[in-house]
Input
Amino acid sequence: MTEEFIHNPVLGREVVELLTEVPAGTVVDATAGGGGHAGLLLAARPDIQILGIDRDEVAVQAAREALAPFGQRAQIVHGGFERITEIVKTEIAEREIVGVLFDLGVSSPQLDRADRGFSYWADAPLDMRMDSQQELTAATVVNTYDEAELAEVISSNGEERFASRIAGEIVKRRPLQTTGDLVEAIKAAIPAPARRRGGHPARRSFQAIRMEVNRELPNLEAGLGESVHLVSTSGRILVLAYHSLEDRIVKKRFAEWSGSSPTRTYVRKGLPAPDAPTASVRLLTRRPIRASEAEVTRNPRSQSVRLRCVERIA
Output
């Protein structure tokens, strides 16, 4: 396998268990990574095929190598899951889709490759692209966004309370060349007492800029919104989210689809109340599934994961 993309799937057993009850057909792994989840599912379900999608070309090659023993049951393509409907229609127009899996965020192999620019622990070019073919990079965000735009990105995507101070410090130090330059700007902007608690001081800002570069939240909204129309009756949609912004989107969308979203309706006196929303899915995880202590010990990055699942109903 491509050495830098060995994929240890988070909640692998739980994902397979949730997909053991779907009918025979095709599962779309919308974030194939190195093929970890797909390999477990193909081994457990001989009547399942996989269409894997990933925006990282290195991951696509790694998944193809890892899943080669399954032959034509596994097909991996390069692309972003915000185009999931287009990709499915192009690649497997006649097959029944019985599952869609989203494993969100940046993967361990991407974090561990210093030259990708995702990590605040190593000095590297300001890149942060999951898809190296796209134009927007972290350098563009850091060096060309105006101060107000930069503060909004860091505040909204990173939930960073010192976003305005960090944006001002970045603008003052322009041009920034490397992730090390960015880390130093962030540290200089955050008061010393705050730097000494809550983990690495650059964590939230790096997350925010990475999410802006890769349009992670808008893409999640788009891909998730399309997935419910692709899955056949009794098919399932699974999402592994790693921070609150992603999980909030998933929880809200699943609640809306299931008809359980709390809404406040004002009805004029004498008029009939509106019909309740029609449910298109059944919630299978009222509370998100979390990683066990044993898994967190093996893979500390699984600590923040939340797995949610719905089943399509007629």
In short: The first strand starts at residue 25 and ends at 29. Residues 5 and 109 are 5 Å apart (CA to CA).
